[in-house]
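Handout, section B. The chain below has 196 residues.
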Amino acid sequence: TIEAFVLAGGKSTRMGQDKGLMLLKGKPMVSYILDTLQRIKIPTNIIANNASYNIFGVPVYSDIVSEKGPMGGLLTALENTRADMVLLIGCDTPLISTEVISHLLSHANKEKIIVPGMASEINPLFALYPRCLKQKLQESMGAGQLKMADFILKNQHILVDYTAQQISHYFTNINNPHDLLEIEKKWKKIETVKTT
């Protein structure tokens, strides 16, 4: 069993305001991811420290340990699920598609982390994490080891190769107002690619 948790608890310092609630073509950025997950029919939650996220009609959890970045978000997800695995996904990747998510889910293994590998880089904020790793996660955090990539690489994991597929645009991160403006300029072209 798999449950999704959308990470929206970051400080958004480069954006200047809460990223997930920034409007992209008139809609909050996080709503694009929520809509995509709804089409897959996967149980979905949000991790955020802002009560405004309650408007989306899915459970919202605050970080159980503050100031720990994405590792803290992952721990919050693992503490609040009964599923075998959680799909962790950042709120700043609104272009992610059902096909991309389904491809990742098809590799699910309840004892290993499933993470995309593209051009020798991994994407920790779009990955499947087994609930059985919660204790190891707590140990890493207790030791001050907060880098997601390091945690993945030192535990059992499977790299899912997305390089051969022409889908790199789906992983586009929107981190600042310039990124947001660029995506809106290219929106018509992006929509064409997503539907072909």
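Note. The helical segments are 29-40, 69-79, 98-105, 134-142, 148-153, 177-185, 187-194. Compare this with the example in section A.
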